[in-house]
Amino acid sequence: MTEHRLYSEQVVEAWEETYKKGLLTFWILLALHRGPKHVRQIKQYIEKEITTNLTVDEKSLYRSITRFKKMNLITSEDVPSEKGGPALKVYSLAPPGDAALKLFYERNIESVFLSNKFNEETKELK
Predict the structure, then answer these.
(1) Containing H/E element for 79?
(2) Distance (Å, rounded) from C-alpha 109 to C-alpha 46?
(3) Stated pTM of the model
(4) Angle between helices 58-70 and 3-33 (to 10 degrees)
(5) What angle do CA 9, 31, 51 make, to 5 degrees?
(6) Cα–Cα distance between 82 and 90 in angstroms, integer?
């Protein structure tokens, strides 16, 4: 591996870590847009159903969820466990959270990554 390639990998890894943290809000709200979930289900949705190169720390999820509840983006309810254990806290997307998710998508995904201009500018990268 060349010195430039090694350095580039280090730069990209740091960049990806920042990028992933910034998109955690999007992934959480998208997971809940698909239906109510408890934290493990949100984690599984992000890591296995949506992305394959992203791991999510449950502590980060809980911190984000707490913040989103205070912002009235999500709601929660205690649901009895099917296995007889303690009740599970299940989270749902509240109307303001759904509106925020859709607005973020329009402004940052649809108008950027799904645009013809983006495709034209990045076609040589493939």
Answers:
(1) strand 74-79
(2) 17
(3) 0.81
(4) 50
(5) 25
(6) 13
For residues 32 and 104, give the distance between their C-alpha atoms in angstroms, rounded to a whole number: 15
pLDDT tens readout for residues 67-125: 999 999 999 999 988 888 888 899 999 999 999 999 999 998 888 878 888 888 888 88
CA 123 and chain centroid, separation: 26
Helix (H, G, I), strand (E, B) or coil at 71: coil
| Residue among 76, 96, 100, 94 nearest 26 (CA) | 100
Contact by Cβ (8 Å): 61, 37: no
**What are phi and psi for residue 59, nearest 5 degrees?**
-60, -40
Residues in the chain: 126
CATH number of 3-125: 1.10.10.10
Q: Indicate the residue type of 71.
A: M
User: What is the C-alpha to C-alpha distance for residues 1 and 19, in angstroms, rounded to an integer?
Assistant: 25
Using DSSP bridges, classify how beta strands 74-79 and 88-93 pair: parallel, antiparallel or unpaired.
Answer: antiparallel
Domain spans, the chain: 3-125
Query: Which letter does DSSP use for residue 106 in this model?
Result: I
